[in-house]
Amino acid sequence: MSSSDNKDTPAFEASRLGRKDHWDSVYDRELHNYETTGDIGEIWFGSSAATKMVSWVVRTTQPSARILDVGCGNGHLLLDLASRGYTNLTGTDYSAQAVRLAHEIALSDHHTITYAEQDFLDPEQVARVAGSTGFDVVLDKGTYDAICLMPMEDGSVDQKAIDVYPESVARSLADGGVFLITSCNWTEDELVRRFKDHLELFDRVKHTTFAFGGAVGQTVVTVAFKKQPAA
């Protein structure tokens, strides 16, 4: 999607949550905590959202599916899938400390999971990780949220990063592959508009709802998109 479609982008404000140095610091601390206490660290959006994502994958795919977790952090999504018999798992993160933490946890739990550093906004790195076949499933739990808060030098949000991310997802997927995203910054309708040039809405995962002023909503959304074969 081009920057001309900025009207479909919520009015984000740049934040430290969009900076690599912030996440390097977070995962440096969590790595130290893990090595000293065995605590794997924070689970974004809580365990319920993570469990629902994993359950959706288990319900809709085979254990041989090639799966990528973008912005994997400590790797908890892939650890859960590995414990359920999934064997072709890859996690990437732009923080070397996150990759090291995820790798150490997987080794401790005796799971074979591939982890690597990756700038998901760099087409060459996206192509390198995707390989010639692409992934059957790409997972995102909070990664696009963080990218949408990425600051530029002038303090504004990096709109190019917001636009490039959907392209990177499409390049990472095999034809017929599915992108499952959980977000607290975007509504379902906004995500559909944001990814419509590359992917089609396929499914949704229900979360706890709330009612306010006659409207019903939820604090996070999880939706699945499918990449259609090229015409």
Explain how this protein is built:
- With 231 residues, the protein is of the alpha/beta class.
- The protein has eight helices and nine strands.
- It has helices at 20-37, 46-60, 76-83, 96-108, 123-130, 143-147, 159-172, 188-195; strands spanning 67-70, 89-93, 114-117, 135-141, 173-183, 200-205, 209-212, 215-218, 221-226.
- The strands form two sheets. Strands 3-2-1-4-5-9-6 form a seven-stranded mixed beta sheet, with helices on both faces.
- Strand 7 (209-212) and strand 8 (215-218) form a beta hairpin.
- Helix 1 (20-37) runs parallel beside helix 4 and helix 2 crosses helix 3 (76-83).
- The longest helix is centred in the N-terminal third of the chain and has 18 residues, at 20-37.
- The model is unreliable at 210-217 (pLDDT under 50).
Q: For the largest sheet, list the strands in their spatial order.
A: 3-2-1-4-5-9-6
Any idea what the radius of gyration is? 17 Å
Largest sheet: 7 strands, mixed
Strand % is 15-25%
Shape: globular
Structural class: alpha/beta
Low-confidence stretches: 210-217
Q: How would you briefly describe this protein structure?
A:
The protein has 231 residues and is of the alpha/beta class.
Annotation keywords:
single chain, 8 helices, two-stranded antiparallel ribbon, seven-stranded mixed beta sheet, 231 residues, alpha/beta
Layout of strands and helices, then pairs:
Blueprint: H1 20-37, H2 46-60, E1 67-70, H3 76-83, E2 89-93, H4 96-108, E3 114-117, H5 123-130, E4 135-141, H6 143-147, H7 159-172, E5 173-183, H8 188-195, E6 200-205, E7 209-212, E8 215-218, E9 221-226
Parallel strand pairs: 1-2, 1-4, 2-3, 4-5
Antiparallel strand pairs: 5-9, 6-9, 7-8
Helix pairs in contact: 1-4, 2-3
